[in-house]
Specification:
Length: 168
């Protein structure tokens, strides 16, 4: 079985995904890291040098490669991955999607504790602009996110809740 974690940057996809993979005894894949390995540069460099459209095409191609593989895994996708090139449809037809719906204020708090330079959509924002940008992006993406097989809402989503619901 394939599990795809989706949601806004900073929603906990990678953190929860790693735990879920251990619990389910599956490989964990971070789609952004796989893109960086393939492209030989970091996501922010790809956005800067080749622009977002190029990144989204590479992201979609790599995602589809995993979707068509026979491998079972838990994958953390980038926040925008479900919103381009029929990726949400592809994930839903290849496995189970899990949307982590975390409030914008919590995401802003989490992101302020990280290096925003590594997050191209937030890199040039002042701290007071961050929450507004998150809310704007979420409003554009929510129709895709809401197509997920499983939706978990809140600031602290317990692993056991996720496990019991997806196994249930």
């Amino acid at each position: 079985m394939k599990f795809f974690l989706i949601g806004m940057p900073g929603s906990g996809k990678t953190t929860l995904g790693k735990l879920l993979a251990v619990e389910l005894k599956l490989n964990f894949i971070d789609l952004d890291l796989e893109i960086e390995k393939s492209e030989g540069q970091q996501i922010n460099q790809i956005f800067e040098k080749k622009k977002e459209d190029y990144f989204r095409r590479v992201e979609s191609a790599m995602l589809k490669t995993y979707c068509f593989s026979r491998e079972s895994f838990v994958m953390s996708t980038g926040g925008g991955a479900p919103c381009f090139h029929d990726n949400m449809w592809q994930m839903n037809h290849s496995g189970k999607t899990i949307f982590l719906d975390v409030p914008a204020s919590e995401i802003a708090n989490r992101l302020q504790k990280t290096s925003l330079i590594e997050r191209p959509l937030f890199a040039r924002l002042a701290p007071e602009q961050l929450k507004d940008k998150i809310e704007f992006l979420r409003s554009q993406r929510i129709t895709y996110y809401r197509q997920a097989n499983f939706i978990f809402e809140g600031t602290d989503i317990p692993m056991q809740t996720v496990i019991s619901k997806i196994k249930g």
